[in-house]
């Protein structure tokens, strides 16, 4: 196997046509799953293709997005931050205003409708910080489907408020004690459940990763973000944005923002990974693209945090939503083709950006998009005043209050 860095990927005619029929974006993606899962994966792919071609399915999603979730989310000119940074105009895409507080609901509404079309009667999901688990439990309550959420035992302790939310919503939360008891282990366990309950169960994956067709399917549901930004920027500025910035955990909010713009060569894009304590600190970060190597995990080939001999590393980030050792395969391909630039922001930079945003705009962002803002703060001053940056403010900070207070030495 050649290492990725030695084989620069060719520039395709369009960046928006992937994946191919076997689920590959260049050399990344695919479906590396147990034989027992293969029929399910193929059934899902077929059902999704049929749903995409059915106008009623699109209408049902649009209705829920508008009336249940509160879309379109505003595109907001952060005018104090813009003046203070002294360069490009900084716009926030306010996806933190969605029902349940982040972009996760965009994906869950799409997938729950798909599960119903497929006649599935039981829902499972993995969750790390609990944001995806809460969004899944929410749509399961609304559509009256029983759901079980796999969550690492360590995370169950760290994220008690989200565990309580899921339980209130009627979900069964299964703590996973294998490994370090975090997101990677929860995802392994959810895949195991799926294999053993093939007939009635639908697995709602929370990010644009996993085996084909999940990366494409999640991307499509999240692309509502970028589609709205296109229209809103045309209305506000009469032209496309110059720069897009989003944080990267598994990569779903970022690909949702980027995808509708991938073939617009004038639009530059930055994905911001969690730099934790710094790239030079062993196990101290979660930057799979910047500090990892290609390998296979959770059914697809992608960049991973791993040791020399391929053991998956845990990684670290102050933000629980970014500490996944992998990354959606489309991002690995966008990195190799050079279409998107991937950079990192450290825990400290994210904490500083969170406080800056709160004081300057009266908006407490989640720690995840605070990473994106840290990069905006680097680049905005270097651009001129006519240029525009759109940053995806993909989650609110309420969930991070305890983490932030602790880091800042505040007592709650
Ligand atoms: C889950 C989450 C993320 C990370 O997931 P992506 O798939 O990379 O978007 C980022 N921000 C927030 C607010 C989240 O809840």
Summed up, the helix count is 16
Order of helices and strands: EEHHEHEHEHEHHEHEHHEHEHEEHEHHEH
Biggest β-sheet strands, sense, barrel: 6 strands, mixed
Ligand names: pyridoxal-5'-phosphate
Proportion of residues in extended strands: 15-25%
What is the CATH topology of the largest domain? Rossmann fold
Structural class: alpha/beta
**Unreliable runs, pLDDT <50, ≥5 residues?**
1-6
- Shape category: globular
Number of beta-strand segments: 14
Report the average pLDDT across residues.
95
Helix content bin? 40-55%
Structural Rg:
20 Å
For the record, the CATH architecture of the largest domain stands as 3-Layer(aba) Sandwich
Across the major sheet, the strand order is 3-4-14-9-10-13
Number of domains: 2
How many angstroms separate the termini?
52 Å
* CATH class label of the largest domain: Alpha Beta
